[in-house]
Design goal:
Helix content is 19%, strand content 40%. The chain is α+β, with helices and mostly antiparallel strands. It has a single domain (7-66), classed as SH3 type barrels (Roll). The chain has a five-stranded antiparallel beta sheet with strand order 3-2-1-4-5. A hairpin with a 4-residue loop joins β2 (16-20) and β3 (25-29). The chain starts with 6 loop residues before the first strand and ends with a helix.
Amino acid sequence: MCLSVPGKIISIKENTATLDYGVEKRKAKLISDDFKIGDYAIVQGGILVIKVDKKEAIESLKLYQESFKD
């Protein structure tokens, strides 16, 4: 089973976006122009696949970040 957590796009250089998950940053490949800095998105297989509503993304990120606390 896979868990998909949305990240916030913080930079875009050529066809690569950097996403911030609050506890880590990751890079993903852009295959369309539908994404911009500030968007929240899901990455699958290293590719940005879908935008996520900001409110929903923030709620998901809070839960994800809490899983790192112990």
